[in-house]
Specification:
The two termini of chain A are 30 Å apart. Chain A is built from 18 helices and 19 strands. In chain A, strands 1, 8, 9, 10, 11, 12, 13, 16 and 17 form a nine-stranded mixed β-sheet that branches. In chain A, strands 4-5-7-6 form a four-stranded antiparallel β-sheet. In chain A, strands 2-3 form a two-stranded antiparallel sheet. The longest helix of chain A has 18 residues. In chain A, helix 9 packs antiparallel against helix 11 and helix 15 runs antiparallel to helix 16. Helices cover 31% and strands 22% of the residues of chain A. Chain A is an alpha+beta fold. In chain B, 79% of the residues lie in helices and 0% in strands. Chain B is globular. Chain B has a domain of 183 residues: MetI-like fold (Orthogonal Bundle), CATH 1.10.3720.10. Chain B has 330 residues and is mainly alpha-helical. The chains are: A alpha+beta (513), B mainly alpha (330).
Amino acid sequence: MNGISRRGLLKSGAAAGVLGLSGMPLRAQTRGGKLTAGLSGANTTDSWDGRTHSDLFMIASAQGCVFDSLTEIAADGSLKGELAESWEASADAKTWTFNLRQGVTFHNGKAFGADDVIESLQMHLGEESKSAAKPIVEAITDMKKITDHQVQFTLAAGNADFPYLMSDYHILMFPAGQIEEAIANGIGTGLYQVKSFDPGVRMVATRYADHYKGDSAGFFDEVEYIAINDNTARMNALMTGQVDAINRIDFKTEALLRANPALRIQEVTGNQHYTFPMLTGTAPFDDANVRRALKHGINRQEMVDKILLGHGQVGNDTPIGPANQYYAGDMEQLAYDPDKAKFYLKEAGLDSINIDLSASNAAFEGAVDAAQLFQASASAGGININVVQEPADGYWSNVWLKKPFCACYWSGRATEDWMFSTAYEAGVPWNDSQWDHPRFQELLLSARAELDSDKRREQYGEMQQILRDEGGVLVPMFANYVQAVNNRISSPDTVGNLWQMDNGRMAERWSVA
Amino acid sequence: MGNVLTIILQRLALGALTLLIVSIVIFVAVNLLPGDFAQNILGQGATPDAVASIRRDLGLDQPPLTRYFDWLGGVLQGDLGTSFAQANFASFTGTDSGATTVAAQIAPRFANTMFLAMVTAIIAVPLSITLGVLAALYRNSVFDRAANITTLSSISSPEFFLAYILILFLAVLNPILPSLSNIYEGMAFSERLQKSLLPALTLTLVVTAHMMRMTRAAIINLLASPYIEMARLKGLSPMRVIVKHALPNALAPIINVIALNLAYLITGVVVVEVVFVYPGIGQLFVDSVKIRDIPVVQACCLIFATAYILLNLTADIMSILSNPRLRHPK
């Protein structure tokens, strides 16, 4: 008969009292309302298949709303359990036991358990698998169901970051035996249940009533993501209040948005970086002195100022960024110095050098301009760069990994080992600088299995140093994620910097103000 | 009337031939573009193995001639094929159950485009004919000049510019209409109409000049004819002379221009769709070209070509029907 339960009222009253006394800001996140966001990165090829996800729209829709992973990276970068409650490793970091959360159900009512984990991981294996997470799952040699809510993984080699890898947005938990149906209709264990999904157009999801995250997350009744790939259309939609939040603000108009009192700009520096990799197995890049000359011939600050319009920070030729745990931010910064460039060229026995640099805006927005800036700054050091404009179509197949020197970008990875083993480990397919350095490789393998955090910090520090001094990839800049949200929506002070839009989890962490 | 039937049949046969040629041209053109579906969908992850595996799944490893005739065979049986985007998704799941056909993918988008074209036509056609008649009636007056200048400047501006101007005045400064036209299935008709209004107005600005000026020119052209002079001498009012005597005879060119513009409304609205995020066939077409989804591109082109052919045919028939001399040849 009572609209409000008396007990509930007392409880919340008491809670408010405690919070008030403890001096914590009383910014209760209220349940209810709707979040409408205009997001880029949508395609007509989109589906609920986590193996195919590569851009924000589906990451925010799948991992951010409808599906869960075993682990989750919190906004502050720390690791916490999602469908896994806890985990422990053997001393060599080779055997990992995950304890799964109990009482979790998929949106179709099926209970979640160990079988689902094993089958969801097996999706990524197989000869024909095109999953981007295949290398991660391939490292697991054995998956064993111990109880209904406990799974044991045995890895080919020790990996201290294994729980981090399980937070990858490709590795989503699907219901065992119903995977095809789940992919077709979007059936996960996430906070929101799919209401309608039109690939490349729109996704609507409603709050799943008895979700295990309870009142601690997922504050909206309904979430609507509208695919708006056009920058200006996204801005218009935000300005006219038709959406509450948008990703990827155009740097050129950012000041105008900032002037609007009804909007907030969120800007975070993460691991997204723009690079110029050179094939170190090919002359002249096989000579460390030539690489050093190039490192001093590039004006990083100028690139941050002109290409990113200040929305970023200079790189130090390592792919490890501020969102990484063992980021060596205190390492001495490489500086633009034409005299040093000349010096290193001389060390290599050269007075001047002619180099082709292949670039296209497919690599990153402004890549061709960046190459031209590089050309101008390097010429003072006796390095003559010839900028070759490549067609954007087929860039990743025909230029990247093929041309000796080109432009590229990386969205970065949550852990050092993940990043290094993707693009810097000897022999891996995406090693875009053909990097094969004995000491680096040795450190990579030992740090991977090392569970002692201090030792790892030391090892990763040395690796970053090696890359800065000799590495075959120029990392001139880290690009910020810049997004905007209106005042109807409240967001926590700390938003994730691993991906755009609070790591794609705005539906989980934000609420109606 | 037999005459008209012959013309229709002739035109339809020619139309079919045109469609065949269009499909060949498009197929060759898409194949000439660098990169294919496998490389585009994999992006940075395009390892040779993965590319080869997707190509195998989709039959892209077959020689182009085989692929073209396979596709043509399907179309002749009414099967537009499976879009690569969706087929690729099916190959991930290892089944065809989730795959949808090109037809199923295009149908809702095409319906949206038709809706927008219709809303625009309902506004633009009466508007431009009225303006044209009035301009002819008061030719060389201030009204004529103003109408000409306005419509000509709107047709000379790029579409996106017109769209932004309208957004500025009707959505940002005076929030009357939404700048986002994300219509979807199950939306109430009134809401759908409201959301489509800004793009429809933009398109109206784009197509009005052409139709209005043709109406005006066709009517003025006739005003020197003896039978118009006769009507004037009878003492009819200028309005009556134009609407009752001149307009029926000027219909043929006007209908032709209207048909041309309607075809444009179906095939040429990509920019407007992007600016207003309208989920029409134009956006789908551009997306599909971007990822080299040949079956969808082909199907879209066929639809575009068919729209042109049918609308032109309709225009010709209407002109014949509106002209007694053509209707009853000696």
